[in-house]
Specification:
heterodimer; A: 578 residues; mainly alpha; MetI-like fold; two-stranded antiparallel ribbon; 22 helices; 4 strands; B: alpha+beta; Rossmann fold; 4-stranded antiparallel sheet; 15 helices; 17 strands; globular
Chain lengths: 578, 438
């Protein structure tokens, strides 16, 4: 666990110019969705997805489903890694590419993943007609989009902050750009990249469960996996099967946590670039076991042969570095042309978007969707406040007791990975049984999965308070409210902001599944942008899905830029302890 | 027989352009030669551009003008045969000692077996046996710097560059490492022909070098070259050593006076638009100034203060000492000439006064002799609400200085101004004012 708050967005100066690029990126991305949606509209229903196996609620089928789910997860991870290793260096080393890629990733990060699933499903079905590959690709794509932006930004950030002295050393000893990449830049990036990968993977379980079973245009598409199992269980109102799937998921997450997450974190400690030993290293029994056996040594030896050939081969160079311009005039002309192409494509995109949405949707409805967005924004705000009231005191208490923290910290990381949508059915039965108000009681479901980010950031923040400051407070009898006001709250503030920002982003995403709840024939719908997107997905009304996504995107972006980033910058300038 | 010099610099210049588009000269026409079999020290205050010069020689930075020749070839990029030791070792934390030492050989495409053998030899030579598989974080600062030396020497450079290689180490470790390196060089156990190093430690320069090149700042240029013929091993107690030390101190202190008078002439001719208030200020705190003034009292013999002795006792090197004396001189608390230092009445009054009185004296001198302080105070006095944003002054300074330098200058004057209570500053709002804090 990094000792500093991790913050996804790159620290670039937020001027008007960058907003301009953000808006361009938003328009282009939405237009691409519009094209997808347009194509989807043309398609005949029912969609030809080939033969998908029937989902069985037998407990004996569960291990197989779990394996399917895990496999999807790791295929998506492979693609995410590949994307990261191509796009991040490109953005870090080529200024023209950076100008386009960063705003694109910034926007893509705030796109509701589950909202666009319906469009990507239809697109992939069209790409692979009559084959299971279509929905499989869509599911994997959804997981991919939940992981990849975070990883890419982390790698980019590391590439941009690699210490200058490392580059100097590489230059003096004349390492090729290829050697420099693998020997210096990648190792330097590993702790951050790995940590972000793990965070992304943890968040990914939620999406893998949500994307396995999807209903588009009144057609249920179910891929074999835990997500479909639970969705069938919901349709049949089978509470026993729900518990089975929760148990299966717990086992999967436990294995993932113990055999992958923790060993990798322990391994990555060697890449930390400060020259001091971590006083509280991440321990992992599995990693220690591997070290003791010879397997790791053998692997390392084999690995070193491979790297010898791959990394030290004299012919290889990193291809994406800015080549010096041949002639300044041509170079300028090329940039000018590039900018013109960009502007033109934005104009076309804008026209296309307007045309697509305005055909079906009236201005009044757009206004209504904005209103729904405001309701969801209000819900998210209330949830963040409530979660903070609960978790800040608990987090501070845990942070002050590192012995307890040692046990709690892994537990919260484990809970953050658990796909909370598995317990939604339990909440639904409770709401139905006690006849509770849906509008109120379905709301907390949105934050159940992401509240842990607040908790573990607060714990990290409290643990980072220098012991001397705590002793001073004790010495001067600074107690109760004064203690919170002068010591605890300022010290955890930057961490807290990071945590709540992540939690809030997760809430928006979760609202799409948390606003519409089902149990057998019962259907509970809460007012909000999430239910708007979700309901129109079921209907297959693509212009309205697109409208919902666009407006959710706008809300997330505006709140991120004008609330969270402002708060974070303020926190960073005032409260970060050096 | 005249051999070609290993390295020669011809009118090397370096300048930066600031955000206002103004050129700032950092290095001004540096020319010198480095022959085979000599160790040369570049000595000077911080800001004299000696580290920049070393980077240019290493091929890490491009000069704005002039040429660097290594043997016959112009250096435009890092050249094989020139290797470098960095101030903070710059080891890769994820590589073991052995792997760190191997890195230069890997870059040359030397096969693994030969590579390993050479690296192990270098590790032996530099006295790192037994640490081959250690990670840098397991090593002390001195051991890390040894790895830095092994890494630089294993590629068998003819010219070794070192950027303040001992300055991050404590005194004992530095001495130990320095002696080991000298021994290697004297016994010719490395193929390295010559060493060029940057330092701000006068004693270190005299202990190691065959020749010292003294730099002066604003812009960085060569002030003097001093050959040293003392036999190795040298001792700080020897007669010759003391004489050299005095000589160098004299040179370094004369430069202040010279610059001062030169600047006055420049201001008169008014060809230069550089206003008085944009003059560089050294990065020193009020408590350091006070501390030095107090220490001077006890070192006064017949009204004069022996600088080398004072520096020795207070463990001050070129970087710490001269900025302090320079600013005390500009504040008219002391007077420096030819290595001697005289405490003026105001300085004596200051060190004898109590806290409030000191602030009073400091404020008076600050306003009288530091144009930037006077300028800020005048601007604030003129404003009806006696408030001004820091950007106002930053922008003014940036017309003549780099962004970084302007910022640094304002930070220093804010620190002094706050101490003297000639103006107040609010960090959150970034506003300078004449108000007392609420």
């Amino acid at each position: 666990m990094p000792k500093t708050p991790y913050y996804q967005a790159p620290k670039t100066k937020q001027g008007l110019k960058s907003y301009f690029w953000d808006i361009l990126a938003l328009i282009i991305i939405l237009a691409i969705f519009a094209i997808l949606a347009c194509a989807a509209k043309e398609m005949h229903t029912p969609y030809q997805v080939g033969s998908l196996p029937e989902i069985s609620l037998e407990i004996s089928a569960l291990p197989g489903y779990a394996a399917n789910t895990v496999l999807r997860m790791f295929i998506a991870l492979l693609f995410s890694l590949a994307f990261t290793f191509i796009i991040a260096p490109l953005a870090a080393k080529n200024r023209q590419a950076e100008k386009v890629l960063l705003p694109l990733i910034d926007i893509l990060q705030s796109i509701p993943i589950l909202g666009m699933l319906s469009m990507t499903v239809v697109a992939f079905i069209q790409l692979f007609p009559n084959s299971r590959l279509g929905p499989e690709c869509a599911a994997i794509f959804a997981i991919f989009t939940s992981q990849v932006w975070n990883m890419t930004l982390s790698f980019y950030q590391s590439l941009r902050t690699t210490p200058k002295e490392f580059y100097d050393t590489a230059a003096v000893f004349q390492l090729s750009s290829w050697q420099q990449f693998w020997k210096i830049e990648v190792p330097f990036a590993i702790p951050g990249l790995l940590w972000n990968t793990m965070i992304s993977l943890s968040a990914g379980w939620f999406f893998v469960v949500a994307s396995e079973a999807i209903s588009v245009a009144n057609q249920n598409i179910m891929l074999p996996g835990i997500g479909s199992y639970i969705s069938v269980a919901i349709a049949n109102a089978n509470i026993q099967a729900i518990f089975y799937s929760i148990a299966a998921m717990l086992i999967v997450i436990l294995l993932y946590d113990q055999l992958l997450f923790r060993p990798l974190l322990a391994w990555s400690a060697r890449f930390n670039s400060n020259y001091v030993d971590d006083p509280e290293p991440n321990r992992a029994w599995f990693y220690e076991l591997l070290i003791k056996t010879r397997i790791l040594k053998q692997c390392e030896r084999m690995f070193s042969h491979v790297t010898e050939i791959l990394v030290n081969s004299p012919k290889l160079q990193l291809p994406m570095i800015n080549t010096p311009p041949l002639c300044p005039l041509y170079y300028r002309l090329a940039i000018f042309a590039w900018n013109i192409v960009l502007c033109l494509s934005v104009v076309i995109a804008l026209y296309f978007l307007w045309d697509f949405i305005s055909k079906d949707v009236s201005i009044a409805e757009v206004g209504h969707v904005f209103y729904l967005g405001a309701i969801t924004a209000f819900k998210v705000m209330i949830l963040i406040i409530l979660a903070s009231l609960i978790w800040v005191p608990i987090g501070v208490w845990i942070g002050l007791h590192p012995k307890i923290g040692q046990y709690i910290q892994p537990l919260t990381q484990f809970l953050a990975a658990f796909p909370i949508n598995l317990v939604y059915p339990l909440a639904v039965t409770a709401i139905i049984y006690y006849q509770l108000n849906v509008e109120v009681w379905s709301t907390p479901l949105m934050i159940l999965g992401t509240q842990w980010y607040i908790l573990f950031n607060v714990i990290a923040g409290t643990a980072a308070i220098p012991n001397e400051l705590r002793l001073v407070a004790k010495n001067l009898f600074v107690h109760r409210w004064l203690w919170w006001k002068r010591l605890a709250l300022p010290a955890i503030f930057p961490y807290y902001i990071t945590g709540s920002m992540t939690a809030a982003a997760g809430c928006w995403n979760a609202s799409i599944v948390a606003d519409v709840l089902q149990w057998g024939d019962h259907k509970l719908v809460a007012t909000g942008l999430g239910s708007y997107i979700s309901e129109h997905t079921t209907l297959g009304d693509f212009p309205r899905i697109l409208l919902g996504i666009a407006i959710m995107c706008l809300y997330v972006l505006i709140i991120n830029h004008f609330v969270w980033r402002k708060l974070y910058n303020y926190a960073a300038s005032r409260f970060i302890l050096e | 027989m005249s051999k070609k010099p290993l390295l020669s610099l011809e009118k090397v210049e370096k300048s930066f352009t600031n955000s206002e588009g103004q050129k700032l000269l950092v290095l001004d026409k540096i020319s010198f030669k480095l022959e085979e079999n000599e160790i040369v020290a570049l000595l000077g205050k911080s800001g004299s551009g000696k580290s920049t010069l070393l980077r240019i020689i290493a091929g890490l930075t491009k000069p704005s003008g002039g040429n660097v020749f290594y043997r016959d070839k112009t250096v435009t990029a890092p050249a094989p045969g020139i290797s470098m030791v960095f101030q903070n070792s710059a080891l890769f934390p994820w590589l073991t000692v052995l792997e760190n030492v191997e890195i230069g050989l890997e870059a040359q495409g030397i096969p693994p077996k030969t590579r390993r053998q050479k690296a192990l030899n270098a590790i032996d030579t530099i006295g790192l046996d037994g640490f081959e598989s250690a990670y840098p974080k397991e090593l002390s600062g001195g051991m890390r710097q040894r790895v830095g030396f092994a890494r630089a020497l294993v590629v068998e450079p003819l010219l070794l560059l070192m950027d303040e290689p001992f300055s991050a180490l404590d005194i004992l470790t530095a001495e130990n490492l320095r002696n080991d390196l000298l021994e290697l060089w004297i016994d010719k156990r490395t193929p390295t022909r010559s060493i060029l190093f940057v330092t701000h430690d006068i004693e270190e320069a005299i202990l190691m070098a065959n020749r010292i090149i003294i730099f002066k700042a604003d812009p960085g240029s060569i002030q003097a070259e001093i050959p040293i013929s003392l036999p190795f091993p040298r001792s700080t107690e020897s007669e010759g050593f003391r004489a050299l030390l005095d000589k160098i101190y004299t040179i370094l202190t004369t430069s202040d006076r010279e610059k001062f008078s030169k600047e006055k002439i420049r201001a008169k001719t008014a060809t230069d638009k550089h206003p008085e208030y944009a003059r560089r200020l050294p990065d020193v705190s009020v408590s350091e100034l006070t501390g030095l003034l107090e220490a001077m009292e006890s070192h006064e013999i017949k009204g004069k203060i022996d600088l080398p002795e004072l520096a020795d006792e207070l463990h001050l090197d070129v970087n710490n000492l001269f900025p302090l004396t320079e600013i005390l001189d500009r504040l008219n608390f002391i007077k420096i000439s030819k290595g001697d230092l005289v405490c003026l009445p105001a300085g004596k009054e200051f060190s004898g006064a109590d806290i409030l009185k000191r602030k009073h004296i400091f404020a008076k001198h600050l306003l009288a002799y530091i144009p930037l302080a006077k300028h800020i105070r005048e601007v604030l006095d003129l404003k009806s609400n006696h408030r001004a944003p820091e950007e106002l002054f930053l922008n003014e300074l940036q017309e003549f200085l780099s962004e970084e330098e302007a910022d640094r200058l304002l930070r220093i004057i804010i620190d002094w101004g706050r101490y003297a209570e000639i103006f107040a500053y609010d960090y959150d709002e970034g506003i300078l004012s004449l108000e007392n804090p609420q």
